[in-house]
Structures are given as C-alpha cells and as structure tokens.
Design brief:
InterPro entries: 6-blade_b-propeller_TolB-like, Beta-prop_PDH, Quinoprot_gluc/sorb_DH_b-prop. Pfam families: TrAA12. It comes from Gordonia rhizosphera NBRC 16068. With about 425 residues, this protein is mainly β. The protein has a single domain (about 70-105, about 110-430), classed as Neuraminidase (6 Propeller), CATH 2.120.10. About 0% of the residues lie in helices and about 35% in strands. It has helices at about 195-200, 265; strands spanning about 40-45, 45, 60, 65-75, 80, 90, 100, 110-115, 125-130, 135-140, 145-150, 155-160, 175-180, 180-185, 205-210, 215-220, 230, 235-240, 270-275, 280, 290, 300-305, 325-330, 335-340, 350-355, 370-375, 380-385, 385-390, 405-410, 415-420, 425-430. The strands form 7 sheets. It has a 6-stranded antiparallel beta sheet, with no helix packed on it. A 5-stranded mixed beta sheet has the order 2-4-31-30-29, with no helix packed on it. The protein starts with about 40 loop residues before the first strand and ends with a strand.
Length: about 425
C-alpha cells in the first residue's frame, strides 16, 4: 500500500537529526500543517548512461516503500507530457527545444532525441485527439502552436493564436486541452501593479481558444500568474497561481503595521491559490489578498482588501468575488499541476491532482520545492488538503541542488518529475497496492 499521509515533512528526528535511513535530511520550510507525517530520505540511484550532475550523492524524501532514479538528462527541463505511443516530451524554456524521451525499460535510461528546436521559450505541452489525429499543443512566449504528432515525429505546424504578451515578469504560457478547446494563461508583467488589469491586452488572465484558432476569450481575471492548468474529473478547469511578493500588511489592528512590508507576515502570505476557473471568474489580484486567517487547513479562503491598491474596497468588492478553494504555503511557486484520473498510478494517487512547487525566489528562509498530492472529493467537486510526497531538493542552509518543476503520471505507474536546476528527469515509483 502507498502510505496515506495527512501532511508531510522530512524524515528528521525532533532534534533535527537523521531520518530512519541514517541519511541526514535538511529541515523543512513547509508549515506545520503540511508536516504532520514523516518522509524517509531515499538515496538517488542513476540509470546507466545518465549523468546525475548536481544530484549525485543526494537523496529525496519520499513515503515509505518508494524508490527514485535519475532517469534522464534534459538541461533546463520544465513541463512534460506523454504521447499516446508512450514517449515523454519535455520542454526546456529558454533553451528553446522540446526533447523526446523514449523509454527503454524501467532500469534503463531512455533514448533522448530533440523533437523541435529554435522555439521561443516553450513551456506548456498538451496532447489531444482530433478526429483520429494526435495533436501536440505548445505554449511559446507569444503564441500557442499545434503540430500533428505521429511515431516520434511532427508535421503540419499551425499557429493557433499569436501576438500574446511576452514581456515582463511572467512570459511563460501553459496549456491544457479538453473537447477541442485550449486553455492558456497570460501572466502579469508586474509583481502587484493594477496596470496589468487595464493594459491592452489585459494581463493576469486565463483564456481559452478553439484548436482552430477561433473563439478566443478571457475566462478569468486577477490571476497573477496561473501557471498550473488542468481539467478536473468533472470537466471544469482549475489553476494553481503564483501569488505576489512583499505583500503589505492588510489589517488595521493593534499591531500597527497596516500598509507596511513585515517579514513575518510576508513569509506566510499571501498563500498560493488553487481554484476552479470559469467565465467571469475574478481571483482578485492585486486588489484583494487571499486571507487564510491563520486557519490550519487552508481551505475555502476569503479575501481582505489590499492596503495600497484597494484600501477602501472601491476598486473591487473583495466580498463579491467568491473564495479560493485551496491554499498552498506562501511562495511555494506552484508550476506543475495535473489531475491524475485515468492514470496508471496506484488507486490512492489516481483520484486527485499532483501539484509541483518550484520553491521561493526571495523568501527568507527560502521555501523549499516539493511535490504534493491533493485528493479529489466527488461529493463536493473540490480538492482537499494536500499531502506532500517529495521534498529534499533544498539544503539545510537554504541553497538548492535541484528544483522540481512538473510531475506527471507515467504509463508504467511511476511519477516523472522534471528539475530545471539539475537538468534532470526523475522516475519515482510507489509500491504496488
């Protein structure tokens, strides 16, 4: 059986010593609400012919009974998606290429080939069927493009939509596809400037367009950087959002810090958002701040007025825009987000979503990268409190030898995790149930 966890942590003793395997584990920077259970350090093995690079000699913290292997070398490995014929395509962002990994058996490195090169910051990848043809959809910085895919080769390039904003802080485009419609994100150009809501074209949105390029429309606004995109079991679209940095304290209370940037508050706020997206959705940024109110579970989160951009609520009524379904630790930077229904994962992991966090860039101390699993509740059509499955990319001093980006279920029942810092793809295998 796969261990069922109510939270997550590293396998360290109460005094910060070694875990059960005797391998020292770095202290966790995840909140106590995500540290209720223990993960065990599992030394990384390496598939023959693969160079472990900066991962050499390290462990990942995993549930009991899991194993992990450095599976492939892909410099700047970002997002990943499986083809119908069992190959893994990995985007490389600023490297400008898509890499095709063809498995050669569970204990072997895959055959690595360059599928495409010379692209403009390719990030999101999705495959879909179009009347018997397999299509590959890719998000470049300024456009969404599709190709026909067959037997490890591409043909018939088509630009679905062009001229998307590609400057500023968040140029990456992620994609998700369902029933002939492509959902994609347009991240904000700024950290917390309202100009992104009035720019032309508008930034900080989630949009959709038909595979033939028609019917482009905005679905959601106030989505600072909705890099995680995936369709839930009920067919609705979800996003995982990177929230802002250096958020001013939004409460008029006895603390006397209203409108100031306070490190103790910034370290845990605002929480990252995971929510359902539909036509007319507004996630509030940068007028409304997700307000967990100190609740332990980070579920069903409301908002408080931003003290700089919306102090009196006259720019946006923060009580009128709904609530955030699920919060993640502040500055987690969720990027990978995929629902696992219909996958070959064990039953305990095949009814929810894998969420992959890249870790913070300026939090002190740094928020560590991680992979988590959130179970889907059919009755409420919602995601539940996440279980952290993977940590260990961050050293005790806050430096990192790796950074997780995406985690996708494989056809063999393993989870494949990309790492753009170490330039690797890992194969994580849970025990059979």
């Amino acid at each position: 059986m796969v261990a069922v966890l109510t939270g997550a942590g590293v396998a360290c003793s109460e005094d910060g010593g070694s875990g059960e395997s005797g391998v020292a584990a770095a202290p966790s920077t995840l909140p106590s609400t995500m540290n209720a259970a223990r993960l065990l350090p599992v030394p990384l093995t390496t598939a023959p012919g693969t160079d472990a690079g900066s991962a050499a000699g390290h462990s990942l913290n995993l549930p009991q009974g899991w194993n992990v292997r450095v599976w492939a070398n892909v410099p700047e490995a970002r997002m990943a998606a499986w083809t119908s014929d069992g190959k893994l395509v990995v985007s490389t962002g600023q490297n400008g290429s898509l890499v095709l990994l063809s498995p050669n058996g569970p204990d072997q490195a895959p055959t690595t080939t360059t599928l495409l090169d010379g692209l403009d910051n390719p990030q999101g990848i999705a495959f879909t069927d179009d009347n018997g043809r397999e299509l590959m959809i890719v998000g470049e910085s300024g456009r969404i493009v599709s190709w026909d895919y067959r037997d490890g080769a591409l043909s018939n390039r088509r630009v679905v939509i062009d001229g998307l904003p590609d400057d500023g802080n968040h140029p990456a485009k992620m994609v998700a596809v369902r029933d002939g419609t492509i959902a994609y994100n347009v991240g904000s150009a700024t950290n917390r400037d309202p100009v992104d809501r009035t720019s032309n074209p508008q930034r900080a949105t989630i949009a959709e367009v038909a595979q033939d390029g028609t019917g482009n429309r905005t679905l959601a606004v106030g989505v600072r950087n909705g890099e995680g995109l995936s369709f839930a079991p009920d067919g609705t679209l979800f996003t995982a959002v990177n929230q802002g940095d250096n958020q001013p304290y939004p409460f008029r209370d006895d603390q006397g810090d209203y409108g100031r940037v306070v490190r103790s508050y910034v370290n845990e706020n605002p929480v990252e958002q995971v929510s359902r997206i539909g036509p007319g959705t507004d996630l509030g940024w940068p007028y409304c701040v997700p307000n967990s109110g100190g609740t332990a579970e980070l579920l069903d989160i409301g908002y408080v007025n931003d003290p700089i951009n919306n102090p009196d609520g006259d720019r946006l009524d923060c009580n009128s825009i709904g609530r955030t379904m699920l919060g993640l630790p502040a500055h987690s930077a969720p990027i990978g987000f995929v629902f696992t229904q219909g996958s070959a994962l064990p039953e305990s992991l095949s009814g929810g979503a894998l969420i992959t966090a890249h870790g913070s860039w300026n939090r002190q101390p740094p928020r560590e990268p991680y992979v988590a699993y959130s179970r889907w509740d059919d009755a409420t059509r919602s995601l539940t409190t996440p279980t952290v499955l993977v940590t260990g990319f961050q050293n005790a001093d806050g430096s990192r030898w790796g950074r997780s980006v995406d985690a996708v279920p494989g056809p063999d029942g393993s989870i494949y995790v990309t790492d753009d810092t170490a330039g690797l793809v890992y194969r994580l295998t849970p025990p059979a149930e």
